[in-house]
Design brief:
By secondary structure, the protein is mainly beta. It contains no helices and 5 strands. It has one domain. Helices cover 0% and strands 39% of the residues. β4 and β5 form a beta hairpin.
Length: 84
């Protein structure tokens, strides 16, 4: 599954599709092993649980986009500790 995360400090609206694990409804865990390219700054980070909305784009396509951190915590069976 993929959701899109906004890139910050780009000067225009830019979205990066990232791997994510669905929880329920509109809540997703951004895959903890997702790598951020050196030249990008993401609004939300790998391992964070986010709330998403379905956003239509001017191209006519639409995607799930992360809009806020979710209150739900990740499933404890999913290791989100990158130091292990």
């Amino acid at each position: 599954m993929e959701v899109s995360v906004a890139l910050v400090n780009e000067g225009t609206e830019v979205w990066r599709p990232v791997r994510a694990v669905p929880f329920d409804g509109e809540t997703y865990l951004i895959s903890p092993d997702q790598l951020i390219p050196d030249d990008e700054e993401w609004q939300f980070l790998p391992g964070q649980v986010v709330r998403c909305i379905h956003k239509p784009f001017s191209s006519g396509k639409s995607a799930w986009v992360a809009v806020a951190l979710a209150e739900e915590r990740p499933n404890p069976s999913i290791n989100t500790d990158s130091t292990r």
